[in-house]
């Protein structure tokens, strides 16, 4: 089998963790859902139970899944020195998949990843490490080397709001450009 058995103490802590403290009385057993009558049809108010998948992953190495995730929260866990991180799938804006990541209390070299919900889109072919960031496109070397007749306009080639090229950029006006392929 791939991965550790489910009887691992870290996975048990993550999968069977409950928010109630030891001093509180146990929650009453679940009652059958109330019926709701809408337009002659009877509907159940029971919320669809989402499945939860728990994996144990080493801290070092690549991410265990191909999805892009956005962190939306973090909170301390009672009885653990490590916080739990909360992530949403950012591959598609309507995707309801989420995951929780926490470091194992008994083995800090591993993390416990709990997945809930299902992805509403296909698996992406590549995960862009810079997804969600804005960056300027690099200027090709050929555009730096201009003949005197092809001088760039006064606006910045980098696209900032300064209105002129930064002083660190020297425009080569020689006919033999050191960056050219000729």
From TrEMBL:
InterPro entries: WRKY_dom, WRKY_dom_sf, WRKY_plant. GO terms for molecular function: DNA-binding transcription factor activity; transcription cis-regulatory region binding. It is found in: Nucleus. Keywords: DNA-binding, Nucleus, Transcription, Transcription regulation. Residues 58-124 form the WRKY domain. Its main location: nucleus. Pfam families: WRKY. Residues 18-58, 117-162 are annotated as: Disordered. GO terms for cellular component: nucleus. Residues 43-54 have a biased composition (Basic residues). Residues 131-149 have a biased composition (Polar residues). This is WRKY domain-containing protein.
């Amino acid at each position: 089998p791939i991965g550790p058995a489910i009887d691992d103490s870290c996975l048990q802590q993550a999968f069977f963790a409950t928010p109630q403290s030891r001093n509180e009385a146990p929650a009453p057993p679940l009652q059958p859902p109330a019926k709701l009558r809408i337009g002659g049809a009877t509907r159940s108010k029971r919320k669809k139970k989402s499945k939860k998948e728990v994996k144990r992953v080493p801290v070092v190495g690549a991410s265990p899944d191909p999805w892009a995730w956005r962190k939306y929260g973090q909170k301390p866990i009672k009885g653990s020195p490590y916080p739990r991180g909360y992530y949403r799938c950012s591959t598609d804006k309507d995707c309801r998949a989420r995951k929780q990541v926490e470091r194992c209390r008994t083995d800090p070299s591993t993390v416990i990843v709990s997945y809930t919900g299902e992805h509403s889109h296909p698996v992406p072919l590549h995960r862009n490490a810079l997804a969600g960031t804005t960056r300027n496109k690099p200027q090709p070397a050929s555009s730096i080397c201009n003949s005197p007749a092809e001088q760039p306009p006064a606006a910045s080639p980098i696209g900032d709001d300064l209105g002129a090229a930064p002083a660190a950029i020297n425009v080569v006006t020689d006919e033999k450009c050191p960056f050219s392929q000729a």
